[in-house]
Design goal:
alpha+beta; 13-stranded mixed sheet; two-stranded antiparallel sheet; 15 strands; globular
């Protein structure tokens, strides 16, 4: 009888845990859905490095060898938003246990703003909706996202982080109190979903704020901004490092004060994924470049229209476009944020 009781004491929690996990496609889905990461009191270099060190320390030797890569690893440039990617650098979320996944969440929350962490959490959860009847589909779902740390997390020496998978590639580089976030790909399918009674839209406002900016233009400005009547696609996405498209559209030096304010709101949706101190510095830099920026629009200038846009300046490429795959371009969205002068932290040591 005592043996039976002991078996029940061991097995029942396991069964209960299995039942809890079965409510989600994978353990990463459950942790991303339910875990609230430690909220940074500051985004200092020491705190970011400590979060990186804690994540690596949570891993066993095998997983740490996957996650910890040399700072100059070629894997940095091998990200893609197209599943299935196959073997790649970094540790796969589906190969981590609950505690390790929580450390991964803590790390992402330590190096991104609340806005940025929400995207890093919600895009994999949106990807779960593309699984076939909840069953694993290689390259899709929260379990098929990878986290890589390049170099040793440090408050003074260069290191970097990459979190990528279908519809997401965040490339962060650090050197002391300086930081970059380029290139970063943010996409989603579906556009929105419900989780725990909450409606979630990973790319909320990226279309509407750009449309608000376009609507604020004069008729003459719109004629310059609108390039074509059909949506275009991204030209600076995955596999196109170093490509700088020809500037097209409206020269932003003609913008009025209120128009500039609306354009800044669009930029904030992208650059604001960085922690507040870094986002503020980056926004100040970009605001100083507005006179050198161009804004191009493709497609109808109306709410619900099938359109795309590109904002480009000396240190900025922002692109947004719906995708035909899936049948509804409003439900399958892609965007890119690049600083062509600072890819993978190229100018952090200057």
């Amino acid at each position: 009888m005592r043996f039976f009781a002991a078996v029940v004491a061991v097995v029942f929690p396991v069964l209960l845990y299995a039942q809890q996990v079965s409510d989600y496609p994978s353990l990463p889905s459950q942790v991303l859905s339910e875990y609230s990461p430690k909220q940074p009191s500051e985004w200092a270099a020491e705190a970011m490095a400590a979060a990186g060190q804690a994540f690596l320390a949570s891993l066993d030797d095998e997983r740490r060898a996957e996650a910890a890569l040399p700072y100059d690893s070629v894997e940095k440039a091998h990200w893609t938003n197209t599943p299935p990617r196959g073997p790649q650098g970094g540790v796969r979320l589906g190969d981590l246990d609950e505690g390790q996944l929580q450390c991964a969440c803590d790390l992402l929350a330590a190096v991104l703003s609340a806005q940025g962490y929400a995207k890093a959490r919600n895009i994999p959860l949106a990807d779960d909706r593309l699984l076939r009847n909840g069953q694993r589909r290689p390259g899709f779902g929260a379990e098929d996202y990878w986290l890589a740390v390049f170099g040793q997390p440090s408050a003074t020496e260069p290191w970097a982080l990459q979190f990528d998978g279908h519809h997401l590639a965040i490339n962060l580089a650090f050197h002391g109190e300086r930081m970059s976030m380029s290139p970063t790909f943010i996409g989603t399918q579906p556009r929105d979903f419900t989780l725990g009674g909450e409606s979630i839209e990973p790319m909320a406002a990226k279309d509407q704020l750009a449309l608000d900016f376009l609507s604020s233009l004069t008729d003459e400005q719109k004629q310059q901004a609108i390039i074509g009547d059909r949506r275009a696609n991204l030209v600076a996405g995955a596999g196109r490092d170093g490509r700088i498209p020809e500037p097209v559209g409206l020269a932003c030096q003609s913008l009025s004060g209120p128009q500039r304010a609306k354009l800044k709101s669009v930029i904030q949706l992208y650059a604001g994924d960085m922690p507040p101190p870094h986002a503020e510095r980056r926004m100040a830099e970009l605001v100083g470049e507005i006179d050198q920026m161009t804004f191009g629009w493709w497609g109808p200038a109306e709410t619900g229209g099938d359109y795309s846009y590109r904002l480009q300046g000396p240190s900025l490429i922002i692109e947004y476009a719906g995708q035909d795959l899936g049948g509804d371009p409003h439900d399958h969205l892609h965007s890119i944020y690049r600083d062509p002068t600072n890819e993978y932290g190229a100018r952090l040591s200057e």
